[in-house]
User: Fold this.
Amino acid sequence: MGSFYVENFGCRATQADGAAIERQLADQGLSRASTAAEAEVVVLNTCTVTSSADHDARAAIRRIHRLNPGARILVTGCYAQRASEEISAIDGVSLVVGNSHKHQLGELVAANGLVSPDSWIPVAFLTAPDGVVQGDAAVRRAPVIVDDIFAHTQLMAAPVFDSDNEKTRPNLKVQDGCNNRCSFCVIPYVRGRSRSLPLAEVLQNVDQLVANGYQELVLSGINLGRWGRDLAATRDRFVDLLQAILERTSVPLLRISSVEPMDWSDELIALAAASPRIAKHAHVPLQSGSDRILRHMHRRYRPWHYEDRIQRIHAAMAQAAIGADVMVGFPGETDEDFEQTRALIERLPFTYLHVFTYSSRPGTPSAAMPDQVPVQRARERNRILRELAASKKRSFQEQFLGSTLRALTLTQIADRRTEALTGNYQKLWLAGELPANRMLTARIHSVEGDALVGVVE
Ligand code: SF4
Assistant:
């Protein structure tokens, strides 16, 4: 019938959606092209978490239209949900589909066939007036299909692989959306309410990946720790999901991606510490160490709650990787607020940080807050935290010199070496050209740049 190419932007949840879109298009009989330049239908699965994410998506539309002017460019994802009309006016766009209708993208493409881009009309949706906004007759705009995201309950799930190590570590999205309203965050407005993949479907996906030989699976979600709360038929919580996966599948290693601090219950920490099949890795978003700023952010914990959770994780798993997302330059963040963040980070056993500079998102409460922090000051704070994180990482890595760690091989790199990832989330370079997806034990002898270096035992 034709060929397609999906280009993804943004977080792991968006990558997982992209994998599900590929599956939908393949189910409609389209074949996957190896580049956007060769495809008849190009899907841009966008992110809108910062203004530069929006900019990247617009630049990609222009680039693809220039390289492949005959392609139908279909724009979906979070930016399409937030600013569909803005995107529909960009030259070259054939159709804009919000997250609200992303699960029907395969049908949309099938309904339109491979006719000329200008005649793309969402035929299948003309009977669903709530979902359709027709193009403006005066300005040439692509048709838009977008609806109230809060009215939608679908969850698209398909395992996804990192582009640089496609043979290892599939990522399984088991939860989407978020019921919180952090004042800086646009995600609830573009992804809707929290919803979970039912347990039976999770187990089925895990079984399939294990049967295909994968050694490590990453469980992910937008607010992963809330898994199960929307499933009225059961009282299962995230910790029950983990228990069930451990008991009812033979997955060798399960890695938990980001979980909000107050969802790190004592029960979850105990399970993660006790099971050799759960990677010793906790990613716990912090955002700020200032109580005043956390309140303005509408975050639901205080710095002392956060500190308590991290100390408990560290006490239970001394060798665990512990990481956090931190935001600098939130409106009204004073030097004193920043110092509280820096001091909290300094005294906690973090092994890495993702430091973000605040980016104002239209429609979020913080966009209207006074006292926006000058960019230069925010950048300076970002630099200070990144340097602090690098020195913490270095001391964490040095404690493993001379000892052994379990790791999964990823890909061969230069100088006849192989890159691997340890259970506690350290990049590891091993001597020799080893096949991907092999779980092994390595003895660490040095640190080179940001990687451990070792030999297979
Ligand atoms: S917890 Fe807050 S920051 Fe995270 S997705 Fe929900 S609203 Fe956004």
